[in-house]
């Protein structure tokens, strides 16, 4: 894990609160990105799944988000935390350049909420119609599972994404797009905007380079434009939540959930203690939760008094209520 730490200042807070996302530049070196792409290449034939079935497509046929080649769908690549060829995918959990942003936008005790995976698009493949929103972009309903808030200067996201850019996305390339400021919108969007058929001037594609990380609130309306480059688009997508929030449930599928061992066992191989702390299930920080230091290099434990825990044991038969 890189040792250089980023600090969050007024500018970063302003930009995230203004737009609902931020681009963190040069988190990973070109050498680290090459190793990550080599690992993807090594596993691609084994684990890559292309969305060809119409029932799992991400766009409407012939819509503005559908792409020029209807035979090509988005490609999803799982199991990336189980690979041994590179440390990059595990390091996203506790990287010294990213932890300050996690703490600022999620709070201490943040946790990985979804299984991370690689998204790939070939030239002409479909994008992803606009989705998400604190006010759901399609229904107009309040979506507290994805909600963004900023109260008394404290930013919180019920669910936040971190997208590691593995191939350059210059202007006009397609890929990740966002409706800037939509995390604070109060209404649903027109259907023709969601599908990319109209109001495209409000849908922005950030310019990014391999090694950057795009961090965005799931309360910000976002999607993906059809891919226009001759090379394959690749990003590694993670979703994180505050200590007490949960959207996904993959952490419950295996092992001893009470000890935070519900994720697939092979994911834990080679992980540091700080990385394992990010895999804990949702519960409050004061209940002996392991918290990462501001640089991600160490941990501390937030706890109630031993007397209170002993009392709970008498009342409930458990150390925790």
UniProtKB/TrEMBL annotation:
InterPro entries on file: Phytyl_CoA_dOase-like
Protein name: Phytanoyl-CoA dioxygenase family protein
Naturally occurring in which organism (per UniProt): Triparma verrucosa
Domain of life: Eukaryota
GO molecular function: metal ion binding
Entry keyword set: Iron, Metal-binding
Cofactors named for this entry: Fe cation
Any matching Pfam family: PhyH
Coiled coil: none
């Amino acid at each position: 894990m890189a040792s250089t730490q980023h600090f969050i200042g007024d500018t970063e807070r302003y930009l995230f609160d203004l737009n609902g996302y931020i681009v963190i530049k040069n988190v990973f070196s070109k050498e680290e990105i090459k190793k990550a792409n080599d690992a993807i290449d090594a596993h691609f034939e084994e684990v890559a799944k292309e969305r060809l079935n119409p029932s799992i497509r991400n766009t409407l046929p012939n819509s503005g988000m559908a792409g020029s080649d209807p035979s090509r769908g988005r490609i999803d690549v799982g199991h990336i935390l189980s690979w041994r060829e590179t440390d990059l995918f595990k390091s996203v959990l506790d990287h010294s350049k990213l932890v300050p942003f996690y703490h600022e936008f999620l709070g201490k005790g943040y946790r990985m909420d979804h299984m991370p995976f690689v998204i790939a698009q070939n030239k002409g493949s479909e994008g992803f119609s606009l989705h998400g929103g604190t006010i759901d972009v399609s229904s107009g309903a309040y979506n507290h599972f994805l909600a963004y808030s900023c109260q008394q200067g404290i930013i919180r996201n019920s669910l936040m994404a971190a997208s590691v850019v593995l191939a350059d996305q210059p202007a006009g390339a397609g890929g990740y797009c966002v409706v800037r400021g939509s995390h604070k919108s109060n209404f649903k969007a027109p259907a023709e905007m969601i599908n990319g058929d109209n109001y495209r001037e409000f849908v922005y594609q950030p310019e990014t380079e391999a090694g950057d990380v795009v961090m965005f609130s799931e309360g910000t309306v976002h999607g993906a434009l059809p891919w226009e480059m001759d090379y394959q688009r690749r990003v590694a997508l993670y979703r994180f939540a505050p200590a007490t929030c949960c959207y996904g449930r993959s952490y419950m599928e295996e092992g001893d959930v009470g000890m935070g061992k519900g994720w697939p066992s092979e994911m834990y191989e080679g992980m540091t203690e700080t990385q394992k702390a990010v895999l804990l299930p949702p519960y409050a920080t004061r209940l002996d939760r392991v918290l990462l230091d501001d640089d991600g290099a160490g941990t501390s434990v937030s706890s109630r008094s031993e007397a209170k825990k002993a009392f709970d044991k008498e009342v409930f038969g458990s150390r925790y209520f």
